[in-house]
Design goal:
The chain is an alpha+beta fold. The protein is elongated, with a radius of gyration of 24 Å. The chain is built from 10 helices and 17 strands. The two termini are 17 Å apart. Strands 1-2-6-3-7-16 form a 6-stranded mixed beta sheet, sandwiched between helices. A 4-stranded antiparallel beta sheet has the order 11-13-9-14, covered by helices on one side. The chain has a 3-stranded antiparallel beta sheet with strand order 4-5-17. α1 (12-23) crosses α3, α3 runs parallel beside α10 (376-393) and α6 runs antiparallel to α7 (278-299). The protein is 33% helix and 22% strand. The protein binds zinc ion (ZN). Residues 83, 115-116, 147, 175 line the site of zinc ion (ZN).
């Protein structure tokens, strides 16, 4: 139990596993299979056969492993989930080799120490306990790929849980929260709209359809959507920014100052509080694009505009009094009514009807940065959390 532990120092076996996982470069652009195979082998060595859920190309995989209850049951129970990929280190000034973790002044430095191989490593290190203690209900390990490029891997992992009818009653996603129990984050939806106008010499504007000028109409529309949400809500005061945001973040178009541009594309995103219907909002943006497209076609019927939804990550919105909140705090997570500004895979589990919280070691402020680190004390607290979980599920 957490309270019995006098010094918050991680165990050697956990540090060893975290070190091994960080030593495998799993930057999202590369394969995560070497890591997945190592972890799968370790799980097999403890008598459990994991399921790998690969991507279409077979270059990456999710891992799902169910450690059954003492009575053999595999349904219900608790999911422990984390992603296995990390963000690139390109161009970042690191004081030490990012994939050779190093302990300095009570911290472990390396890419993925905080986000989020300490959580995954701590779980793998607990396999001896997880697989020998007679459990009253199963524990499911769910490790994904490609979280960092927009939660690309986890949907098929969550589907697999549904397909196997595992029906877990709780899920903990171990993204860095400094071991606070987080129950909410906004949904994230990203769209790209390509305007295809007609090029013309800039002295002959009536012959062209100016794609940039029409794209600008959509920029205004996104801005006014954002302003309306900021002024009128809906509001969720548990967020630092307590309303839905929207912002155009990329635009490209035009080839020369004397040419009416045929092409302009822009990308924007909106991050919505739970009360906002995401599909309805996407439909509203599509309708506006169709309105603009009709204006373009009045000038020239060849003009058109196309919308692509490039990312769609559901929000997390677990009730303050949900059972999973009680469980996570009972195991040592710190109560925290607030919601967080960043997105996680927790929204996918929540969306699939699995009660979910985010709770993991490390501070999100260190994630993705050069000299990423996790406090050793945080790793020890994560171990205590897992020990308490095993203790609680002991039948
Ligand atoms: Zn992460």
């Amino acid at each position: 139990m957490a309270a019995d532990r006098s010094t918050l120092v991680p165990t050697e076996v956990t540090m060893d596993w975290i070190t091994r996982l960080i030593g495998i470069d799993t930057t999202s652009r590369d394969s995560n299979l070497p890591l997945i195979e190592l972890v799968a082998e370790e799980i097999r060595a403890h008598g459990v056969e994991p399921v790998l859920v690969p991507n279409a190309e077979g270059t990456k995989a999710n891992l799902l492993a169910t450690i059954p209850a003492a009575d053999g049951s595999t349904t219900g129970g608790v999911v422990l989930s984390g992603h296995t990929d990390v963000v690139p280190v390109d161009g970042q000034p690191w004081s030490s080799e990012p994939f050779v973790p190093q302990v300095r002044e009570g911290r472990l430095y390396g890419r993925g120490t905080c986000d989020m191989k300490s959580f995954v490593g701590a779980i793998v290190a607990k396999l001896p306990q997880l697989t020998t203690v007679p459990l009253s209900e199963p524990v499911h390990l769910a490790f994904s790929y490609d979280e960092e490029i927009g939660c690309v891997g986890a949907p098929s992992l969550v589907e697999e849980i549904g397909r196997r009818e595992l029906r877990p009653r709780a899920c903990v996603v171990g993204e860095p929260t400094s071991m606070r129990v987080i129950r909410g984050h906004k949904s994230i939806t990203a769209l790209r709209v390509a305007f295809h106008g007609v090029a013309a010499h800039s002295s002959l504007t009536p012959n062209g359809v100016n794609a940039i000028e029409y794209a600008a109409q959509l920029v205004r529309f996104v801005r006014s959507f954002a302003e309306r949400n900021r002024a009128e809500g809906p509001f969720d005061e548990f967020y630092e920014v307590p309303f839905t945001t929207a912002t155009v973040n990329q635009i490209e178009g035009g080839i020369a100052v004397n040419t009416v541009p045929a092409e302009c594309a822009l990308s924007f995103e909106f991050r919505a509080v739970a009360e906002v219907d995401v599909d309805e909002t996407v439909e509203m943006f599509r309708a506006e694009v169709r309105r603009i497209e009709a204006l373009m076609r009045e000038e020239n019927p060849e003009a058109r505009a196309e919308v692509t939804v490039t990312a769609k990550a559901p929000g997390l919105d677990t009730a303050l009094d949900a059972e999973v909140m009680n469980l996570a705090t009972r195991w040592g997570g710190e109560v925290s009514p607030g919601k967080v500004t960043y997105g996680t895979e927790a929204g996918l589990f929540h969306h699939a009807g699995i009660p979910t919280v985010v709770c993991g070691p490390g501070d999100i402020a260190q994630a993705h940065s050069p000299d990423e680190y996790v406090e050793l004390e945080q790793i020890a607290r994560c171990e205590d959390f897992l020990d308490a979980l095993v203790d609680h599920l002991r039948s």
